[in-house]
Amino acid sequence: MRGLASIVAGRRTKWAVLVAWIVVGVIATPVGSKLSDVTTDDTESFLPASAESTEVVRKLDHDFPQGETDQAIVVYKRSGGLTSADQQKIVADQQAINAAGPDKIHIVGRQLVPFTEGAPPTLVSKDGEVATAVYSVPTNFDKESDWGQAIRDITDNDTGGMQVYVTGGVGFSTDANDVFSNIDTKLLFATVALVLVLLGLIYRSVILPFIPLVVVGFAYTITQALVYALAKSGATVSSNSTSILIVLMFGVGTDYCLLLVSRYREELRRIEDKHDAMQRAVRRAGPAILASGMTVSLAMLTLALADNKNTSSLGPVAAIAVFSAMLAGLTLLPTLLTIFGRIGFWPRRKVVAYDPEHPSIARQGVWRRFGDRVLRRPGFALVTTVVVFLAGALGLLAYKVDYSTTSFFKHSVEAVEGFDVMRRAFPAGTLAPTTVIVESGSGPVTPADVAEVDTRLRRVDGVAAAGPTGNRSSNGQLAEVNAVLEDDPLDKSGLDVVPRIRDALEDLPNGVTALVGGTSAINYDVDQANQRDIEIIVPLALVVMAVILAILLQAVVAPLVLLASVILSFACTLGISILFIRHVVGDAGFDSAIPLFAFIFLVALGIDYTIFLMARVREEARRHGTREGMLRALAATGPVITSAGIILAGTFSVLMTLPVSFTFDLGFMVALGILLDTFIVRTIMVPAAVEVIGDKIWWPSTAQAGGRIREDTGEQPLPEPTEAG
Predict the structure, then answer these.
(1) How much is the pLDDT for 706?
(2) Which residues pair with residue 478 across a beta bridge?
(3) How far apart are CA 21 and CA 215, in angstroms?
(4) How would you classify the pairing of strands 478-485 and 163-167?
(5) DSSP symbol at 478
(6) Which of 154, 269, 390, 429 is the most buried (most CB within 10 A)?
(7) Are 410 and 659 in contact (CB under 8 A)?
(8) If residue 107 lies in a helix (H) or strand (E), which one and from where to where?
(9) Any residues with CB less than 8 A from the CB of 361 and at least 6 apart, and which?
């Protein structure tokens, strides 16, 4: 770290570092701007590779002439019954949709339109008030929303008071596009505005708040270019992964900035030359930033081992983002701070005026007094916080998985309104029928083979209806059969039907096999994959964090204590969040990916503050002992960690502004968890635990040094300033 410090804060070399970043930024900008062109959002890109539903998608895409399809379901309703004029309108809508042509609306396969020749009577409700028209389009996430909007433009004309909705997969894609269009830009402006305001309140300086934004901005540019290269290499990169980059990088990058600025401000009071002050600040704070960045990067990278591709694609992307933020925090940030020096703190330059006789910040202040109170009764403080966190963790008992269409959006949208009308008149599974691929290994699929599958499907508890679609593969060896579930196909009850269907279709006669796919099966398989991913990734991420903490703190006991505190904080956060979202917000449940995402973000990011604290504790303990070292560390890091926690929680709370349940839930959980880590774990639980354990917290360091922590001989400490006055 000494060599790095001499370069980034050198009198001449700092300019070389700045020029190097500018050159790299200029090169990376046009490359990163093309990132959206290489993101992949097709169905197979986010499914578990080994899942049965994934195999169904592959067969539809590769073996069927029309490929994988999605449905646009137009729902027509008039209280008291549809009139003859309404019926004519429905038929006219079909003609207009077909007349639009494939460039505007790409319709494929059979069209199921009521009141037309050969239309099934089941398209009209028994009371005659509701009718549905079903159009199939190729599954294409880039174009589906445009096709859906075009269908809405046609069907919304001249309704004569009849209620008309476009729902189904195409309808939901259209509404989702309205929500997520330009989401990166919206998140960027919202996050930058929030961070700028908070930094302004913290520093009360004109220049200083903009420096972290510049640093993170450069890091974000580099990240986009690197992720683009990752996608071009053949890796799957989804738009969901790239969208969260902004929030993640501004949160993490600002944390590193706050830590280094705080240490630089301390050193400027003690060292007159701005270059020497920054070099010492980098040598002291740099290891904590490096350890934090590596911990979070490697923890994020463990996501790459997930079976769920939507999760695994996030791992490398997030790791690149955090590593870039760390690299900028260790190079570009100290360079800019050194260039501006004390001028950067204007108009509050008195806080960094050279004054070696000024009382040490580690020996005064509200955080020192608060620490004194905690350490007077450490056992009581530790037991109290543990009991409170365990009580919060009881909320885990209310956890429930739910993918219901009615709770996906946080506000009313047309697709959900149409589904509500439809499910009151028809089986709810009409929204997204379950797809069954019947395959014969000895020739074309026969009508008898399809009939056997159809019969077995109708016997399954939870299946309202079943029947062949008429779609066959090019070689005739595959046939498609649809099953309509009784309940919401995205509800937990709908997912529970999937294994029953698969069991019913085992051991078909004549060597025939059947694969079950479609929306319900996809969510069921994703749910199963998420459970396996948690069992693999969580332990691995904890091992990674434990190893890095052990290297940083040169101890074994301390990392175990710190990880235990973070895990307990996560359990409490998840429990409280579940209770709040289910019983206050009113959502039925959660996406099964939420616990893993929340764990990685909370534990990996939450450990940051513990690293910042304990790295300073160890530094101070070498000279003053563990108890005094903890008090001095609390006083020195209290303001910066509190500020960092508020900013990180604020950046993730930006996700709550999006009208989608998944992002709201994730934003709430991470923001709550960060605040708990900032104000309870770091200020009460960890100091109390360290006080209870004593010097043994540093074992085996204490064991190797006769019960005392070995001195750091790498650098001579500055003389301790005397009290003023």
Answers:
(1) 38
(2) 439
(3) 10
(4) unpaired
(5) E
(6) 429
(7) yes
(8) none
(9) 266, 635, 636
Collapse the DSSP code of 110 into the 3-class scheme (helix H, G, I; strand E, B; otherwise coil) and give the result. Answer: strand
Q: Rounded to whole angstroms, how far apart are CA atoms 64 and 401?
A: 33
In contact, 599 and 538? CB cutoff 8 Å: yes
Q: Which residue has the tokens 């060896």?
A: 477
Helices (H), 351-490: 366-376, 378-393, 414-425, 447-459
Please compute the mean of the pLDDT values over residues 42-50 and round it to a whole number: 73
Name 401's bridge partners.
590
Picking from 453, 432, 594, the residue whose alpha carbon sits closest to that of residue 520 is: 432
Cβ neighbours for 96, distance < 8 A, ≥ 6 positions apart: 154
A 10 A CB-CB count for 171 gives 32
pTM of this prediction exceeds 0.85: no
CB–CB of 461/496 below 8 Å? no
| Residue found under tokens 């029309």 | 66
**Contact present, 431 and 167 (Cβ < 8 Å):** yes
Helix (H) or strand (E) holding 668: helix 661-676
Measure the CA–CA gap between 315 and 309, rounded to whole angstroms.
10
pLDDT above 70: residue 708: no
The SS3 assignment for 706 reads: coil
Q: What token pair was written down for 1?
A: 């770290």
pLDDT tens digits, one per residue of 351-391: 778 777 665 544 567 888 888 899 999 999 999 999 999 99
**φ, ψ for residue 122, nearest 5 deg:** -70, -5
- Residue 138: in which H helix or E strand, if any? strand 130-138
- C-beta atoms surrounding 50 within 10 Å: 10
Beta strands in 429-529 (DSSP E): 434-440, 463-472, 478-485, 512-517
> Among candidates 153, 114, 148, which has minimal Cα distance to 134?
114
CA separation for the pair 623, 362 (Å, rounded): 13
CA distance 317 to 310: 12
At 443 the three-state DSSP class reads coil
> Do the Cβ atoms of 418 and 166 come closer than 8 Å?
yes
Give the bridge partners for 709, in sequence order.
none
Number of neighbours of residue 459 by Cβ within 10 angstroms: 10
Beta carbons within 10 angstroms of residue 535's beta carbon: 10
In angstroms, the CA 13 to CA 10 distance is 5
Structure tokens of 462?
Answer: 């939870």
**3-state helix/strand/coil string of 558-591:** HHHHHHHHHHHHHHHHHHHHHHHHHHHHCCCCEC
Where in 220-289 does DSSP place strands (E)? none
Please give the torsion angle defined by the CA atoms of residues 305, 308, 311 and 317, in that order, rounded to the nearest 10 degrees.
60
Tens of pLDDT, residues 282-297: 998 888 899 889 988 9
Backbone angles phi, psi at 707, to 5 degrees: 85, 0
DSSP 309-337: HHHHTHHHHHHHHHHHHHHHHHTHHHHHH
Who's near 564: CB < 8 A, 6+ residues apart? none
